[in-house]
Amino acid sequence: MRTIWIFGNKRHFRYKKIRVKRKAGSKTEYLKYKEQARTLVKERLEYYNKFYGFVYNKIAIRNQRSRWGSCSKKGNLNFNYKLALLPQKMSDYVIVHELCHLGEFNHSIKFWDLVRKTAPDYKKIRKEIKSINQPK
After folding, report:
1. How far apart are CA 51 and CA 25, in angstroms?
2. Cβ(12)–Cβ(45) below 8 Å
3. What is the pLDDT of residues 64-94, one digit of tens each?
4. Proportion of the chain in helix, strand, coil states, percent, rounded to 5
5. pTM for this structure?
6. Who is most buried in 1, 37, 107, 127, counting CB within 10 A?
């Protein structure tokens, strides 16, 4: 819907915004893959943390709409259950990315140098993940 107001010679438009909600995965799908994702994340964190030696707190598997993973200042690592559905190199990248935030809580050059230690082709993988879009 478009509304037009005319003030002098200027036209002002007001557009009705339409929001499309991204849906998280269904509860059935989430429950089906949650433990598989938890096992994957724990195994891969243990493997990659041998190279880094970071200390992390809790690991959570969530049904998120728009994130593959996140890291909190408290050292909690959160991952989307859909990691279990990605090819291993992509899920490994997400896991390494969040693990490296324990060393550098930003996306500085130092952070990317940490990621590069175990994922030297991270730029290519990052593009591939973005091309398949965020979890929906």
Report:
1. 33
2. no
3. 888 999 999 999 999 999 999 999 999 999 9
4. 45, 15, 35
5. 0.80
6. 37
